[in-house]
Amino acid sequence: MLHNVKDNYIISVKDHVSQFEEKSFRKLASNDFKSWPSPREETWRLSRLGVLSRKEIIPITPNFKKQISSVSKFDGSKIIRFVDGALREDLSSKLPPGSSLNVLGEDDSLRCFHKFKDSNLKDHPSTNVSFSCTPSIVKLTIEKDVKIRDLFEIIYEGGDDYTSVHPVLYIELKENSSITLIEQFNHLSSLIMPLQLVELKKNASMNSLKIFNDNQQSYNLSANCIFLSDKSNYNSFSLIKGGLFTRSETHAYLKGENCNLNLNGVYLSSKNQHHDLTTAIYHDVPNCTSKQIVRGVLGGKSTGVFQGKVRVAPDAQKTDGQQMSRAILLSEYATANAKPELEIYADDVICAHGATVGEIDDEQLFYLKSRGVSEKKAKQILVTAFLRDIINESVEKFIQNLVFEEAELALLEIISKDI
Amino acid sequence: MPLLEIKKAKLKLDNKDILKGLSLSVSSGEVHAIMGPNGSGKSTLSYMLAGRDGYELESGEVFLQGQALSDMEADERARSGLFLAFQYPVELPGVGGMSFLREAVNSRRKFLGEGELDHLAFVKEARKVASKMFVKDDMLKRAVNVGFSGGEKKRFEILQMAMLKPKVSILDETDSGLDVDALKIVSDGVNAQRNDENAIVVITHYQRLLDYIVPDFVHILSDGRIIKSGGPELALEVEKNGYAGLINAA
User: Fold this and answer.
1) Beta-carbon neighbour count of residue A58 at 10 Å?
2) Which chain A residues are Cβ-neighbours of B73 within 8 angstroms?
């Protein structure tokens, strides 16, 4: 029975692409969508999608007249809007010189598709489904030597019950260019499958902040593929607080020497939310650094997952790879899973990882209480400090307060229930 | 009425008797020193008084200004005027010193019906007190106790004491880890706060601290009980003869 229902979404996806030619990237992608990942697959063991097979979902047909509800988080930013997974140029800002936004044609889309398929995200459900069903692949290009001073803000919203949404964004930073990008996910949809391909050319630098704040019935299966060339720098921070089920999976390929990667993140989970940060970092060449700091605060019956794989190829000598995850449980019914994985084939490397899951530290709590601070307030202070620390370390100064306020809202929600 | 009264306090940890009927009465204006060898129950006594989880009395009672402590959580005790200077002050990464102090002081002021201090007034007051304790502004901006030296941690404890104006202060081995100069600064800070309205209980191994904070009464704690009480001369006797003689005589 389950199997038949499971097939329904596969059939909807095939229906959705029936009008396209056999050789189109959409058809190719849909042919590869054969089923949802099984819990027997190692990276999906802790984040199971079985429930999606029991839902009746169809890929959305974008409504280009839909009213928008999300507001910009930062005054003066350049805004790019996606509604129902489709770029809305009419609602987006004019971009500054040296930056451009294009809808890709068939050939370029196919190339983008193959880049994803050459990565280990090739079997990710979002890869195949979103390449099948996206309204179009959108490319953001930053030209050579252009340092974008404006903050770019990408706002994704739309969707509704029983639909799936498929924004696909390809970001290319040419040599010596740089940008800071904030993305917020504010869908009402039942299933969101955003894809992002980032290519950083020599000496390019990107700061990325992603805020996952879809509504509490939604599933977000975000997949991101990052390619770094020589001396490039990718610094990202993900704040996961929304959705019933949000998984952000990022694979980064360090292809050029002397590049630097930070994939930090925080998940704040309450009620029956399931949050998952999954990363895979591939050190293929020598002399690169990667760092991951992940923190979680969980209340209610929520579940958090951090899976971080670091692979250091035999040639990737002098790699420095650090990984640290910490989760605080505020409720006895919450669960946090941490699964660091190091695969090191080179011998001259510095790699470290650590993971802790626990309650608020007793000693710290007692110290604050012994100064007259109530238990509730003391816990709030300690958890807030736990987040403030990593936010200050991870994001640029001018957006630290913004991120912190976003985190604090979710934190108060958890604290009001569980402390 | 004494400010602090401990009546026949008995306490077990891990099923082992630690306090075995300890009694002590401390009145306003007094400084009491509690001395004892390792394992005599000194730190247990301070945690019990401060209300740490797991340090509840099996029998007996403690009164702070006539009010029984057994029903009060650690934070209520602190707001009511009890202060514990920790032997090992706890690091609070990410919690700024100034905001920590303000939270603590305002909790106490609210309890006393004094109204919370606004930010500016508070910072001014904190800086004034800090400079007396040789606590630099920079230390107040940093996370509480993170990266502080042993001396800085103890100075920050006494700074908190000065800001909170407690009725009864328990100083748990405040001399441990201090060199002579730091010991003098910390002791001066404590002495500056002695007055007729409050009381201080100094818990220590060594007589050394009592050269600087001169007690009115000295008590010898051994095996969970006070076995002897006297004046400052008792501390000198310990210094000269050790604890063994006193314990054997008791």
Assistant:
1) 18
2) 369, 375
User: In terms of Cα–Cα distance, which of B201, B195, B188 is closest to B159?
Assistant: B188
pTM reported for the whole predicted model: 0.87
Question: Is B95–A366 a contact, with Cβ atoms under 8 angstroms apart?
Answer: no
HSE at residue A298, side-chain half, CA atoms within 13 A, is: 27
Burial of residue B97 (CB within 10 Å: 0-12, 13-18, 19+) is buried
Check CB contact of A383 with chain B, cutoff 8 Å. no
- A385, closest residue in chain B (CA to CA): B94
Nearest chain A residue (CA) to B76: A372
Residue B113 neighbours by CB under 8 Å, 6+ apart: none
Choose from B43, B83, B92 for mutation: most chain A CBs within 10 A: B92
What is the residue extent of each domain of chain B? 4-249
* Residue B4 neighbours by CB distance under 10 Å: 24
The vertex-A134 CA angle with A129 and A138, nearest 5°, equals 130
Alpha helices in A49-185 (DSSP H): 50-53, 106-117, 125-133
Q: Contact B212/B179 with Cβ under 8 angstroms?
A: no
Number of Cα atoms under 13 Å in the Cβ half of residue B231: 1
A22 burial via Cβ count (<10 Å: 0-12, 13-18, 19+): exposed
Give, for A16, the enclosing helix (H) or strand (E). Answer: helix A2-16
| Angle in degrees, 0-180, between the axes of helices B180-191 and B150-164, rounded to the nearest 10 | 0
Alpha carbon distances (Å) from A235 to A14, A180, A198, A298, A408: 37, 9, 12, 25, 22
Alpha carbons A137 and A196: distance in angstroms, whole number: 10
Distance, in angstroms, between B111 CA and closest chain A CA? 9
Largest distance between two CA atoms of chain B? 57
Instruction: Return the CATH number of the domain spanning residue range B4-249.
Output: 3.40.50.300
pLDDT tens, position by position, for chain A (419 residues)?
A: 344 445 688 889 999 999 999 999 999 999 999 888 988 999 999 999 888 878 889 999 999 999 999 999 888 999 999 999 999 999 999 999 999 999 999 999 999 999 999 999 999 999 999 999 999 999 999 999 999 999 999 999 999 888 999 999 999 999 999 999 999 999 997 899 999 999 999 999 999 999 999 999 999 999 999 999 999 999 999 999 999 999 999 999 999 999 999 999 999 999 999 999 999 999 999 999 999 999 999 999 999 999 999 999 999 999 999 999 999 999 999 999 999 999 999 999 999 999 999 999 999 999 999 999 999 999 999 999 999 989 999 999 999 999 999 999 999 888 887 76
For chain B, give the secondary structure using H, E and C: CCCEEEEEEEEEECCEEEEEEEEEEECCCCEEEEECCCCCCHHHHHHHHHCCCCCCCCEEEEEECCEECCCCCHHHHHHCCEEEECCCCCCEEEEEHHHHHHHHHHHHHHHHCCCCCCHHHHHHHHHHHHHHCCCCHHHHHCEECCCCCHHHHHHHHHHHHHHHCCCEEEEECCCCCCCHHHHHHHHHHHHCCCCCCCEEEEEECCCHHHHHCCCCEEEEEECCEEEEEECHHHHHHHHHHHHHHHHHHC
Residue B94, Cα to own-chain centre: how many angstroms?
25
- Count CA atoms within 13 Å of residue A120 on its CB side: 13
Measured between CA atoms, the residue of chain A closest to residue B51 is: A370
* CB-based contact, B164 to chain A, within 8 Å: yes
R_g of chain A computed on alpha carbons: 21
CB contact under 8 A, B94 and A375: no
Question: What ipTM was predicted for this assembly?
Answer: 0.96
